[in-house]
Design goal:
Layout lengths: L10 H4 L4 H21 L4 H9 L5 H10 L4 H41 L17 H14 L4 E2 L5 E2 L1 H4 L28 E2 L5 H9 L4 E10 L11 E11 L4 H16 L5 E8 L2 E10 L16 E10 L1 H6 L8 E8 H9 L12 H4 L4
Parallel strand pairs: 1-4
Antiparallel strand pairs: 2-3, 4-5, 5-9, 6-7, 7-8, 8-9
The chain binds phenylalanine.
């Protein structure tokens, strides 16, 4: 069989001594090239060098070893055969090169092809949760009458959550049935049960006047049901100045109720009790469903309980070194989940925290 090695020998060494044998020798060489071509499409460069390489390419060897030393009778036919072989090798290699390039081009096109008729990647937009929406509404109302927003820690000390709010050691609100204490802190850290600790932290930090609201999460050891959860949302309010009266308190509360529930909503204050306000009140509004005539939602009373509030108890000023003789103020604490449920007609508390998109989608 003819291989590249035969190009290293002369015609005489190969025993080629007639034009016929020259032709068949070249035919063998061509067959050898053709078999290499089909096998080595990927190694096109290596194939080209091994055949056309100037120094040790097969065609150079054939020129040096077959053509140059050929006898005068054979030289012509060797020259012709060599030219034919060379033309064949070059043509085939060029053909191969075009094929490889075209294949690469096709692959690149397939990779880069953009089918504009395909549906795009859908990225559904989220919406603001109704708790968030309610907070924003509450903040809008109070910002419009000069309050500013502050936030505080959810992990509190008993001092801020209870003591400084005039809730003594053995007050039932401190029961560890109602409160989550942080393990390993020996009762020195707890999850705040209301946003009222920020009343104290704010007054400690700044001199009067104070007009703040405090949005945030609070925690209680309640068993979850349709209206209770271990975590819920409050917004605290506190206004302290030298000349704040019960009328200011009532006027602010009425303004808020009309802004939040509509201009027809009426307000009612019911006596209540909180250790840190005196007097204390529950703020009721006319039922948003029946407008006050009585229905199932308001249990046929015409009123809905909104939140707790009152005038700041002078004892509280003692804890923050405010002058109880000169200062007065009011405070309130609203359950935001309740307000959101009222406003959006939601009857169950748990759905607010379950992140079910079928629920969330209803409040774009
Ligand atoms: N902190 C009280 C509660 O969580 C609400 C409240 C705040 C009442 C401020 C009066 C004044 O129940």
């Amino acid at each position: 069989m003819t291989t590249a090695d035969s190009a290293k020998q002369t015609l005489a060494q190969l025993g080629v001594d007639s034009p016929e044998k020259v032709s068949s020798l070249f035919g063998g060489m061509r067959g050898f090239f053709d078999s290499a071509v089909s096998a080595s499409e990927a190694d096109w460069k290596a194939l080209r060098d091994s055949w056309l390489g100037r120094k040790s390419g097969v065609l150079s060897l054939v020129t040096d070893n077959w053509l140059k030393p050929a006898s005068p009778e054979l030289k012509r036919v060797v020259g012709q055969e060599l030219n034919k072989l060379k033309a064949h090798v070059e043509a085939v290699l060029e053909q191969k090169r075009l094929e490889i390039e075209a294949a690469a081009e096709r692959a690149a096109q397939a990779r880069e092809h953009i089918d504009l008729s395909l549906p795009g990647v859908e990225r559904p937009l989220g919406t603001r949760h109704i708790i968030r929406q309610t907070y924003e509404e509450l903040e809008r109302i109070f910002l419009s009458i000069g309050f500013s927003v502050v936030q505080g820690p959810e992990i509190e000390s008993p001092y801020y959550n209870f003591e400084a709010l005039n809730i003594p050691e053995h007050h039932p609100a401190r029961d560890n049935m109602d409160t989550f204490y942080i393990e390993g802190t020996r009762g020195r850290r707890l999850l705040r049960t209301h946003t009222s600790p920020m009343q104290i932290r704010t007054m400690e930090k700044q001199p009067p006047p104070v007009r703040i609201i405090v949005p945030g999460k609070v925690y209680r050891r309640d068993n979850p049901d349709a209206t209770h959860s271990y975590m819920f949302h409050q917004i605290e309010g506190l206004a302290v100045d030298t000349d704040i009266t019960f009328c200011d308190f009532k006027g602010t509360v009425e303004y808020f109720v009309r802004e939040f529930l509509g201009p027809k909503a009426k307000t009612r204050l019911r006596p209540s009790y909180f250790p840190f306000t005196e007097p204390s009140a529950e703020v009721d509004a006319t039922c948003h469903v029946c407008g006050g005539s009585g229905c199932r939602v308001c249990k046929f009373s015409g009123w809905i309980e909104l939140f707790g509030a009152g005038m700041v108890d002078p004892a509280v000023y003692g804890f923050v070194k405010y002058d109880a003789e000169k200062l007065s103020g009011f405070a309130f604490g609203m359950g935001v989940d309740r307000l959101a449920m009222m406003k959006y007609g939601v009857s169950e508390l748990p759905v607010l925290c379950q992140n079910d998109v079928r629920f969330l989608r209803q409040f774009p």
